[in-house]
Design a protein that fits this description.
364 residues; mainly alpha; Growth Hormone, Chain: A; 2 domains; 72% helix
């Protein structure tokens, strides 16, 4: 919120790529894990910021396309390439090198990707925002008006520009605090289901590399469905429906006879399909709920709750040592419960992105 979307995007990308390269030369397990922690900080940060930057630059119809078929499908492609790389490159240092080099291809994008005009306007940097908007209009063949920002609007927005967002702003009123707490819970439990099912793939029967690849492949149709639902249906019902599908199917796994392993794997994949579709919708939904001043912070905070869920998810998987169905019962139940909670969140479908807290407070 303070330094802009573009600067943080490329600095965190540099952290991820640079420390991934240093990690190759690790001389101990302790050194490897400390470096891996820093790489992870850079990776999730640039993922969130890239998402925010794209949604703030693009118009409403393209924004949904970017958020689902853009960001998420390219995430799935990277996910599919991972077991492919790992299958052919068995030395961990060479594998790390192969996964680090693509980060260098992002360097030329500095001269292509612009800063968010919405963020520039919120900071009172109208001239810079106007240059970006006029360039976009020229590229798209749209005639831009002679005056983009009038003096009255600029004066009216000065009080907002002087505000500095802090984390407590996400709890500044009872209404906003309720939305924030519900969003944190939603991200946390959805992440438990998503990563729990993703990390359980080695426990399936068959080749671990193929299982990991299949777990990635199922995400592609999930993102397509998410895009189609977001285009035409209210956010709450789309999100709740996919969570009910994912959680309900995972709960049914315990009823499958032990000799029908293929059916059990199929149900796990269908559960992953539902939870993955819901996960991709969460980003769009959160972006639409919060104003520009705290949007990046809000998505960052909810994403942090998601990381807490991903930290706990391996322990859900380990519960399979006591009862092979116990992880699925817990993950399925939590996913269904969070699907019910989603129905109590406000609806953002068809509304413009809020620019101020006043606009957000209108949503109950």
């Amino acid at each position: 919120e303070r330094f802009g979307r573009k600067n943080i995007l490329f600095s965190t990308m540099a952290v991820q790529t640079g420390f991934s390269f240093v990690q190759i030369f690790s001389t101990s397990w302790e050194m490897f894990t400390v470096l891996f922690l820093i790489v992870g900080m850079g990776q999730i940060s640039n993922y969130v910021v890239a998402f925010i930057l794209g949604t703030e630059i693009l118009g409403k119809s393209v924004r949904i396309l970017f958020s689902t078929l853009g960001v998420c499908i390219f995430f799935a492609i990277g996910y599919m390439l991972l077991p492919l790389f790992a299958y052919f490159i068995r030395d961990w240092r060479m594998l790390l090198l192969a996964l680090t080099i693509p980060g260098l291809f992002c360097v030329p994008l500095w001269w292509i990707i612009p800063e968010s005009p919405r963020w520039l306007i919120s900071q009172g940097r109208y001239k810079e925002a106007e240059v970006i908007i006029r360039k976009a209009a020229k590229i798209n063949g749209v005639p831009a008006p002679a005056v983009l920002f009038d003096t009255t609007e600029m004066q009216d927005s000065k009080p907002q520009q002087q505000q500095k967002a802090i984390l407590l702003d996400l709890f500044r009123t009872r209404n906003i605090a309720t939305i924030t707490i519900m969003s944190l819970l939603l991200w946390f439990f959805t992440s438990v289901g998503y990563f729990g099912l993703s990390l359980s793939t080695p426990n399936w029967h068959g080749n671990a590399y193929i299982n990991c690849f299949l777990s990635a492949v199922i995400e592609v149709p999930a993102y397509v469905i998410a895009w189609l639902l977001l285009r035409s249906l209210p956010r709450r019902y789309s999100l709740s429906g996919t969570l009910f599908l994912g959680g309900g199917v995972v709960l049914f796994i315990q009823l499958v006879p032990a000799d029908l392993n293929i059916l059990a794997v199929g149900l796990v994949m269908l559960g992953k399909f539902g939870i993955t579709a819901a996960f991709s919708m969460l980003y769009v939904y959160n972006v639409e709920l919060y104003p520009t001043l705290v949007r990046n912070m809000a998505v960052g905070a909810t994403s942090m709750a998601s990381r807490l869920g991903s930290i706990l998810s391996p322990y859900f998987v380990y519960l399979g040592a006591y009862d092979r169905f116990l992880p699925y019962i817990l993950m399925g139940s939590l996913t269904v419960l969070i699907g019910i909670l989603t129905l109590f969140l406000p609806e953002s479908y068809g509304n413009p992105l809020p620019e101020s807290f006043e606009q957000m407070l209108k949503v109950k």
